[in-house]
Amino acid sequence: MSIERVSTQHLVVLVNEKRLPLAEVARLTGLTRQAIWKRLKAEGVLVKRREKGGAPGVMVKTVCAYCGVELVRHKRQLLKTDQLRAFCGETCYFAALENPNYAQWRQGCRLARAIVSQRFPLQRQHVVHHKDGDNRNNDRANLMVFATQAEHLAHHRGRTIAPLWDGAF
Length: 169
Description:
Strand order of the largest sheet: 3-4-5
Number of helices: 7
Largest sheet: 3 strands, antiparallel
Low-confidence stretches: none
Distance between the termini: 57 Å
Mean pLDDT: 84
Structural class: alpha+beta
Number of strands: 5
Radius of gyration: 25 Å
Helix content: 25-40%
Order of helices and strands: HHHEEHHHEEHE
Shape: elongated
Strand content: 5-15%
């Protein structure tokens, strides 16, 4: 179907009545999602997803990763935020981040970097991670190196990040 021949009424049927996502309508018509949205909004016929009669989102049942309460979340939201785990709220989220084994000791971080630098060429932005959270345990098998602080934080948030170096191997 050519772009010139796509009528606004046809777009209304696809988006508001058949409830197809804008990406699917864009694929069918050859228009961009933004062009479809602007056209429907200009005509005053766009039904937003959140309004009654709007396009339904796919809901997924899951459980809170901390307390185990059953939750219902939008699948798109879980994918969009790249969250692997869902939480009831901030209380459960921050409680899950706490590590009871964490023992802060600045000298342990320095020693860990010295130990790793004997086997791996460390750069300034590399982060040395203690697997058990105890900075006093500088056993080589307990240490990993991440490329950046962002990757290190993503590892703590539950994402699967491959370390640059793992002392266990």
